[in-house]
Amino acid sequence: MFVHYQGKRKAKCVGTRAAAEQVKRTLEAKLALGDFTFLKGEQPATFAAYAEGWEKQYVDLKPSTAARYKGLLKLHILPCFGAKAIDAICRDDVKRFFSELALKQVQPKSKNPDKIDPSRKTLAANSLQNALICLRVIFQSAVEDGLIPQNPASRVGRFLPKDGERFEAVFLSADELARFLNSVQALSPEHYPLFLTFARTGLRLGEALALRWGDIQFGQDASDVNRYMWIRRNYTAGRFVSPKSGKSRRVDMSQQLRAVLLGVREQRLLEAMLKGESPISEDLVFPSASGAPLDPANLHKRVLLPAIQHAGLRRFRIHDLRHTFASLLIQDGASLAYVKEQLGHSTIAVTVDLYGHLVLSANIAFVDRLDAKTSPQQNATQAQPADERERSEYSEVFENYGGPGQSRTADQRFRKYGLPSPSQSAQPLTRWTECSKSGPIISNGSYLATQVATRRIAASSMTACRMSG
Q1: Residues 54-113 pLDDT 10s
Q2: Is residue 332 a part of any domain in this protein?
Q3: Are 281 and 318 contained in the same domain?
Q4: DSSP assignments along 21-47, one per residue
Q5: Distance from C-alpha of 208 to C-alpha of 299, rounded to nearest angstrom
Q6: pTM value?
Q7: Domain final residue pick, 107, 132, 159
Q8: Do 311 and 450 lie in a common domain?
Q9: Cα angle, residue 249 at apex, residues 243 and 252 outer, rounded to 5°
Q10: Do 213 and 327 lie in a common domain?
Q11: CA-CA distance, 456 to 397, in Å (whole number)?
Q12: How far apart are CA 426 and CA 416, in angstroms?
C-alpha cells in the first residue's frame, strides 16, 4: 500500500489484499479529519532492516547467487550501511564505500586452492562488481517501494578499479586431453565416463551432475545422428535449478561417448533389475555411492588433481575441459554459432569474446579462396615468362664474355664472379655482378629476376669492345 504525503510516497507492507483495503479505508478517514500522526511519527527504515525484508520477500534467486549476496551483505555492506536510514544514503556515500572497500586488506579463503592468488592483498575487481550489483538491486527495490526517490548506486561501476590482467580461458591440446583421460581411466575408472562427458560435450560441472538417464537420446545405432543430451537442470549449492542461461538446450553426443554411456546404462539396468527397482530414467547418470549428486570438491581433490599429476600436465580446472571442448571444435572447423548452441551461451558475443581469437589463423584461408573464384585481371602489358630459348640466349652471352670455365673477357671493364650455368639458373644469385666503376651494380636476387639487366650490360660491353677495336 502506498500513501503520498508532502511530496513523498510512503510504502507499507500490509499483507492480503482484503487487509490492505481495510487499512486504506481507515487511513482515508484519518486523512479526511486532518490526522497525519500515523505518518509523522513513522521512523525511517534502516538499511539493515530493509535488506532483511528484501531478502525474505523479494529475492527469487538461484541458491548460489543468494548465498553470494548474503556473504557480501554480512562481510562488507551491512557493517557500513546497516545502521543508517535507507533514505539518508546518498551517491557520495556509495562512492566513498567502494573507494575504501577497494583498499581493504583481505585474507583469501577458499576450499579450492586454484581460486587463491597469494599475491593478492585486496578484493578482486570481480568481488567489487558483485558487491555493487547486490547494493544496486536492494536500492532499486527501495525505489520501487517509494522509500527513496532514486537509486544512489546507479552508474557507479565506472568508478570501480579494474583488474590489470584480463581472464583468459585455458585450453588443452588434443594430445594433452588424451593423456589426461587415459590417466583418469587408469586411476579412477568409475569416474572416466564423467570426465569423458566433460571433454566431449563441454557441459558445466553442475549440468553434468544433474544429468539423468531420461535426458539422453542414444539413437538406434552409432551411425544414427539423432543422439544427444537434453540439458534441463543444473546442480549448485545443494539444489537442482535451471541451467545458467535459464533455457534448456540440446547437446550432441559423439560416438565414443555414446558407447561408453551405453555400457554404464546396461550395468545400471542390471543392478536395478536385481534389486527389483523401477526403470532408471529418473536416476542420475553420475551419482555418488548413496545415489545423491557427487561432491564437486571431492572430484577436484580425489580425481582431477591425481590424474593431472599422473599425466604430467599443468594444473587446470574441471571447467577448463569445457574450454578445451570449444577450442577443439573450432580447430576442426566448427562455426562459432554451433559452438554457442552446444555450450549454451546466452549470446554469441560471449562465445566470440572467449574463443574468437582461435579462428584468426583460419581467416587467411577464406581470402585465399577468393583468388580461385575470381579471374585475374588482364593487364595490357602482361609479363611473359622466360622460356628455354631466352635462357639459352642469356647463357650464350655469358659464355662468350666470361662464364664458368671461360677465360677473361676482352673488355677488362666487365667482370663477373661465379655466374651460374644454365643448369643452375634457378638458384639464387649470391654474388655481386659488377660493371665498371661508373656502371651499375646488381645486388643479391634470383638469376631469373636479373637476367634482363645483365643481358643489357653484356650487350653494352660488346658494343664498346667493337668500337674500340
Answers
A1: 877 765 677 777 888 888 899 889 999 989 999 899 999 999 998 888 887 666 555 554
A2: yes
A3: yes
A4: HHHHHHHHHHHHTT--HHHHTPPPPBH
A5: 12
A6: 0.59
A7: 159
A8: no
A9: 125
A10: yes
A11: 10
A12: 18
Q: Are residues 56 and 78 in the same domain?
A: yes
My answer on whether 187 and 322 are in the same domain is yes
- Grouping H, G, I as helix, E, B as strand and the rest as coil, residue 11 is strand
Q: Are residues 294 and 397 in the same domain?
A: no
List the grid coordinates of 142.
527501495
The answer to whether the beta carbons of residues 114 and 317 sit under 8 Å apart is yes
Pairing of β 445-446 and β 428-429:
antiparallel
**Domain span at residue 409?**
388-468
Q: State the number of CA atoms in the 13 A half-sphere of 183 facing the CB.
A: 18
DSSP designation for 86: G
Long-range contacts of 10-13 (CB under 8 A, 24+ apart): 10/39, 10/42, 10/146, 11/145, 11/146, 11/147, 13/53, 13/57
Q: CA-CA distance, 325 to 329, in Å (whole number)?
A: 6
CB–CB of 286/318 below 8 Å? no
Q: Which three cell numbers stand for residue 375?
A: 579471374
Whether 23 and 103 map to the same domain: the answer is no
Q: Could you list the mean pLDDT of each consecutive 10-residue stretch along the chain, which spans 469 residues?
A: 62 69 77 62 78 75 79 90 90 90 69 52 80 90 86 83 63 94 96 97 95 94 92 89 88 95 94 87 93 93 96 94 93 90 90 78 63 60 53 47 49 48 47 43 44 54 49
The three cell numbers of residue 275 are 534389486
Residues in the chain: 469
Reading the block at residue 388, the C-alpha cell is 628455354
Based on the fold, state whether residues 152 and 36 are members of the same structural domain.
Answer: no
| 410: Cβ contacts below 8 Å, ≥ 6 apart | 401, 465
Q: Give the type of residue at 99.
A: S
Question: How many separate domains does the chain show?
Answer: 4
344 touches 249 (CB < 8 A): yes
Residue 241 in contact with residue 232, Cβ under 8 Å? no
Q: What CATH number should be reported for the domain holding residue 214?
A: 1.10.443.10
CA angle 145, 149, 151 (to 5 degrees): 85
The last residue of one of the domains, among 159, 189, 207, is 159
Q: Is residue 383 part of a domain?
A: no
Residue 227 lies in a domain: yes
Q: What does the radius of gyration of the chain's CA atoms come to, in whole angstroms?
A: 39
Is position 298 within any domain? yes
